[in-house]
């Protein structure tokens, strides 16, 4: 019995298709990273991984879901990669790039098996740096990495960017073409290039974390596996550039926020908002690690990620919600808005000011954002306004805002929260 053809255990058609989608979400990045190490082209690697997915979509509903779906997809993708390399005229040269001293063509497949069956190691990191190459625009780097690293759809990426879905699709296609045309190698940058390329990589890692922490679409409120992958990549980056404050600041931010994940979900998967969480369920080990990373980032200087981590630390240090230092949080958001201005930062400042100085002051800031095009389809804007209006006793207006937020969100769990808030008004 081989990994490519294990015994099926399930024959339900719908369940099999759901399994394909679930496994793809979990394994696509590792598939692309592992194949890219062989074919040296992330676009081709994604195509091979997609081929494996199509084969699974065809076979699993008919034959059953294999016992180890991830291994099945990797074995299938590996065989497709081997076939591709065999068709290339410079097949032996490609194998030589892997450091293989092959004496005969028949010895190629075992070596390829070893290359793909090894632990992924830094391949995921190579994938991020390749997708974030300077030949691409910042928007294209982020979009391509989210696509390759997380397997996110163009719709989900578009919501993260607050831009139209066709725009993201074009960015991804053009980015892959550019990487191929410029012959960008699948490797980590040279030390002298690392600093210049780090900022866009940090941005990508944080967007990956955010997609896991607050899923933009689907039935799940959180996707912990994405958070874990983002934290792993962040720690590796911090190790590569130990004197870069923002690498440590990002690690601190992610770890402190991730510490809340056990308390963010109720018994039935329902969301539990920050002020309602049982803080005894927060992961104190992650909090300690995050605070240590924050101290290191602040000692080195810090920037926007360090400021956001300092805000998260205010919540982490409060044993009870009512102990939260909202005045400090509002002050930190004021600094963040100066250092890294954006409508989302200003909306978060509205929340903090609303808690520190009263809902009327917070609503004044939120109302000023009503004309921001970037927030036109952002559900958190009406949600924040709804909360502030409810606290002011303007319940009918609050109800309409929560209903508007529910109509805008693509996440079913979040929609339920907004509708419940609307009903309570």
Automatic annotation (TrEMBL):
Domain RNA polymerase sigma factor 70 region 4 type: from-to ranges: 129-179
Annotated keywords: Sigma factor, Transcription, Transcription regulation
Residue ranges of every copy of the DUF6596 domain listed in the record: 197-297
InterPro entries xref list: DUF6596, RNA_pol_sigma-70_dom, RNA_pol_sigma70_r2, RNA_pol_sigma70_r4_t2, RNA_pol_sigma_r2, RNA_pol_sigma_r3/r4-like, WH-like_DNA-bd_sf
Domain RNA polymerase sigma-70 region: 29-90
Pfam families linked: DUF6596, Sigma70_r2, Sigma70_r4_2
Transmembrane segments: none
SUPFAM superfamilies found in the cross-reference section: Sigma2 domain of RNA polymerase sigma factors, Sigma3 and sigma4 domains of RNA polymerase sigma factors
PANTHER family in alphabetical order: BLL0085 PROTEIN (PTHR47756:SF1), BLL6612 PROTEIN-RELATED (PTHR47756)
NCBIfam families xref list: sigma70-ECF
Family (UniProt): Belongs to the sigma-70 factor family. ECF subfamily.
Protein name: RNA polymerase sigma factor
């Amino acid at each position: 019995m081989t990994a490519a053809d294990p015994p099926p255990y399930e024959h339900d058609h719908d369940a099999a298709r759901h399994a394909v989608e679930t496994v793809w979400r979990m394994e696509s990045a590792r598939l692309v990273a592992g194949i890219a190490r062989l074919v040296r082209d992330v676009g081709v690697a994604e195509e091979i991984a997609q081929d494996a997915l199509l084969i699974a979509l065809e076979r699993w509903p008919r034959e059953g879901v294999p016992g180890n779906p991830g291994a099945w997809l990797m074995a299938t993708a590996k065989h497709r990669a081997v076939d591709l390399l065999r068709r290339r005229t410079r097949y032996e040269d490609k194998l030589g790039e892997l450091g293989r001293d092959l004496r005969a063509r028949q010895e190629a497949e075992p070596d390829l098996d070893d290359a793909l069956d090894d632990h992924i190691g830094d391949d995921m990191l190579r994938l991020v740096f390749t997708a974030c190459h300077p030949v691409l625009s910042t928007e294209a780097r982020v979009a391509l990495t989210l696509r390759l690293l997380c397997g996110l759809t163009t719709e989900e990426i578009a919501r993260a960017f607050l831009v139209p879905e066709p725009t993201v699709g074009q960015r991804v296609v053009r980015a892959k073409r550019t990487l191929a045309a410029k012959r960008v190698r699948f490797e980590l940058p040279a030390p002298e290039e690392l600093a210049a390329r780090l900022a866009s990589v940090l941005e990508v890692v944080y967007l990956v974390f955010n997609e896991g922490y607050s899923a933009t679409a689907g039935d799940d409120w959180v996707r912990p596996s994405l958070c874990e992958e983002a934290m792993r990549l962040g720690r590796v980056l911090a190790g590569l550039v130990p004197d870069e404050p923002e690498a440590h600041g990002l690690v601190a931010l992610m770890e402190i926020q991730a510490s809340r994940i056990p308390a963010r979900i109720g018994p039935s998967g329902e969301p539990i908002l920050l002020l309602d969480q049982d803080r005894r369920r927060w992961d104190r080990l992650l909090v300690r690690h995050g605070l240590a990373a924050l101290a290191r980032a602040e000692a080195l200087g810090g920037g926007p990620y360090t400021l956001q981590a300092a805000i998260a630390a205010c919540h982490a240090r409060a044993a009870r919600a009512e102990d939260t230092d909202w005045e400090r949080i509002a002050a930190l958001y004021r600094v963040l808005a100066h250092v890294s201005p954006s409508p989302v930062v200003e909306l978060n400042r509205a929340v903090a000011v609303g808690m520190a100085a009263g809902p009327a002051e917070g609503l004044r800031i939120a109302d000023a954002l009503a004309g921001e095009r970037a927030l036109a389809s952002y559900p958190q804007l009406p949600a924040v306004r709804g909360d502030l209006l409810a606290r002011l006793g303007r319940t009918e207006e609050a109800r309409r805002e929560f209903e508007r937020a529910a109509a805008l969100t693509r996440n079913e769990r979040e929609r339920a929260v907004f509708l419940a808030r609307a009903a309570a008004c």
